[in-house]
Amino acid sequence: MDLHFEELLNKVTDFIKSEAKTETIIGEPFQLGEFKCVPVIKVGMGFGSGGGEGVEGKARKGEGVGAGAGIGIQPIGFLVTKGDEISFLEAGKTHGLAAAFEKVPDLIEKIVSERNKEEVVA
Predict the structure, then answer these.
(1) Residues whose CB falls within 8 Å of the CB of residue 93, separated by 6 or more in sequence, listed in order
(2) N vs C: which end of the chain shows fewer Cβ within 10 Å?
(3) pTM of the model
(4) Mapped to the 3 state alphabet, what secondary structure does the chain carry?
(5) Does residue 107 carry a pLDDT above 80?
(6) pLDDT band at 1, cuts 50/70/90?
(7) In the prediction, which pLDDT does 83 show?
């Protein structure tokens, strides 16, 4: 067996690069009424590798190599913009995305309030 550790390492690294991005895990930015929402994630990565050799004797030989990687991705919230105003809606550690969706009624109320202000001024 021919050990190609560098080739294996490159394949694992390429996989991490292609998978650890917002679009893959949560989705692309989206529009909610007059608000533009951008998902924000936290990414953690780990990598491990090993190798081996063998000893000849009584017809025993050995070779080995191994590598592995892990990715932990957690949504932490959304950047929400309207005009020049930017705010961050935290997803919460215990509720995940549910906490962000709990804030949707507040966003809708804010939209209605802003429209009412614009109508009064006009």
Answers:
(1) none
(2) C
(3) 0.45
(4) CCCCHHHHHHHHHHHHHHHCCHHHHCCCCEEECCEEEEEEEEEEEEEEEEEECCCCECCECCCEEEEEEEEEEEEEEEEEEECCEEEEEECCCCCCHHHHHHCHHHHHHHHHHHHHHHHHHC
(5) no
(6) very low
(7) 86
